[in-house]
Amino acid sequence: MTTFLVSPTEFRRYTPDAFDATAGAMSILFHRHSLCVEGPPSPGDAWLGDLTIGTRVSAMGLESTRSFRAREVPGPVLVCGDGTTVGLWSSLIRWLGDRARVCGVVEVPAHDVPLVQALLPGVEVVAQTEQPGEAVLSWLDDAPPENVTHAYLSGHGQTIQPARNVVRSRYDLHRSIIYTQPYWATGKVGL
C-alpha cells in the first residue's frame, strides 16, 4: 500500500496497481466509494475529485501490514471483498501469475460488474445490494466447497467477521491462514 496526504491533516492508503521505481511512477485503480454511499464525499474521494490528468502527487512509501502480505503458497487462493478491493485483487492476481489460481467473490455496483469481471479473472463478480456485504455473504453461503490453501478478506469491516466464519467452516481453513484487512466500515469515517 501507499499513503497520500488527502487534506492538510488526513492521510489515505491505496494499493498500487503497477509500480515503476526507475520512472518514479505508479498507477492505482481507485474505487469512488462516496459515489455509492449517501452523504458528503469521504476525504479520499474529495481529494480524488480535485485531481486532474497529469497532476503530480507525492506517495509516502510502499508497505503492507505484516498480517496482510501476499503469500506464494501452491493451490487456490480465496478472495472476498467489494469495490474497494478490486485494485488489491487485480494486483494479487497479476503478482501470483501462474503460481496460484485466485477464486472468490467481489461485490460491486451493478453497472460495474462487466468491467470488474474483465479485471478479475477467476473471481465471481456479483452486483451489490443496498446492504453492504449482503451479496458476498449470500455467495459464500451458496458457493460449492472448494479446496483452497488460504484466504484474503478485505473491504467492508462489518462483513469481514461473518465472512471469515463462513470461510472457516466451508473451506475448512484454520483462522491463521485467513487474512483480513478492513478498508471501511458503515458509520465510520477514516477507517
3D architecture notes:
The chain is an alpha/beta fold. Helix content is 26%, strand content 26%. It contains 5 helices and 9 strands; from the N terminus they run ββββαβαβαβαβαβ. Strands 7-6-5-8-9 form a 5-stranded parallel β-sheet, sandwiched between helices. Strands 1-2 form a two-stranded antiparallel ribbon. It has a two-stranded antiparallel sheet with strand order 3-4. A hairpin with a 5-residue loop joins strand 1 and strand 2. The model has no long low-confidence stretch (mean pLDDT 84).
Return the average pLDDT rounded to an integer.
Answer: 84
Helix content: 25-40%
Number of helices: 5
Count of extended strands: 9
Distance between the termini: 15 Å
Adjacency order of strands in the biggest sheet: 7-6-5-8-9
Note poorly predicted spans: none
Nearest-angstrom radius of gyration?
A: 16 Å
What is the string of SSEs from the N terminus onward? EEEEHEHEHEHEHE
Largest sheet: 5 strands, parallel
Globally, the shape reads globular
What amount of the residues lies in strands? Answer: 25-35%
**Pairing-aware structural class of the strands and helices?**
alpha/beta
